[in-house]
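Q: Give me the 3D complex with zinc ion.
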Amino acid sequence: MIVLCANRLYTPQEEIQNPLIFIEDGLISAISSRAQQEVPKNAKVIDLTGNDLTGNDLTGNDLTGDDPTGHLGEAILAPGFVDIHMHGGAGLDVMRATPADLPNLNKFLTTHGVTGYFPTTVAAPLDQTCVALERLADAIEAAQDSAAVNGGAVPLGIHLEGPFLSHKRRGVHPPEYLVEPTLAIFERLWQAARGHVRMMTIAPELPGALEVIVEAVRRKVLVSIGHSDAVLEAARAGVRAGARHATHTFNAMRPLDHRDPGILAEVLTDGHLTADIIVDGIHVAPEVVQLFLQAKGLERAVLITDATAAAGMPDGAYQLGPIQVEVKNGRCTMDGKLAGSVLTMDRAVRNVTQFAGWSLQDAIRAATLNPTRAVGLTQHGHLAPGAEANIVALSPNGEVRQTFVRGRAVS
Ligand SMILES: [Zn+2]
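A: Here is the predicted complex, encoded as structure tokens.
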């Protein structure tokens, strides 16, 4: 048994002072506090408070590297972040990465507090997409075996961003690879991914979209409206067909007009919909992030990174599926259009506290419980008995100290 000690814990809905998390076989077996429970003598204790509870440093980890005084300050435990929209990082693109590459990406993600993610496709030639989906399905199945994880973040399902997107709001998805939704194409993608598609972004106004939405929902895919030029009624039709989420709200969407409200009015006002947003300060102005958070509230706002291979890398040229993107001063573009981000999830969480004055606890919720509830991942995104021990230890200002995947520390 492993016991984690810290100064505070966010489940994330509840706060616990001086928490203890008990971990057995990679799962949380109990959560308590030092006021309620002693640390068992035979447990391996990982003390993140900087106080030595046992007289030994049992972790063997040097947690003091960022602080030359050796004084750690407070440590806050939270669920590991779950990013349901990311294309890569650390120089790797998820559609191109080989099985040998993925551990580097997974390790990189944990340095930013991410313990689970949805590798996300972009529009590409259908046969290339199918090859990528097969490889991602292999990675997801391999990661289900906890021995294969090696402490990195875990790919939990696939997000199909395209090919069923609006030409008018395609962003940088290549127009030649966009297709009208049909059940046959959806079935082909589904088969290639061996059923691991958990989320799909689709423009609901496209001919054939509603039929594909109904079928995807029947297969328990979270259908997200986005890359869309839908007028209000078309967006509502998508929701009636079963769509329950919106993809990078404001970006690649018909803009909000007070007399022609369109898809954005549906996304911002419908209490049945969760919605995600890229809070890097580049994709959406901080004031509009604030407006979004007020509209979707504590329970329905979701943070994503939409990160590309360029995340965590210096300025330069990087691959995003079939296209090449340019990164300069934190902006990831192709021909002057924004093309994903270099955002990391810990930064997104800190930005929410700064842009909107949300507490760290509330911002964490938008990166953990809200996305996992939206996609139906019950063992992720919250700290509770029975959940996977995917945990991030943060400083009070949201800097990542240490990440644990299935109870194992990753530095
Ligand atoms: Zn994307």
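A quick observation: The pocket of zinc ion is lined by residues 85, 87, 120, 161, 306, 340 (CB under 6 Å).
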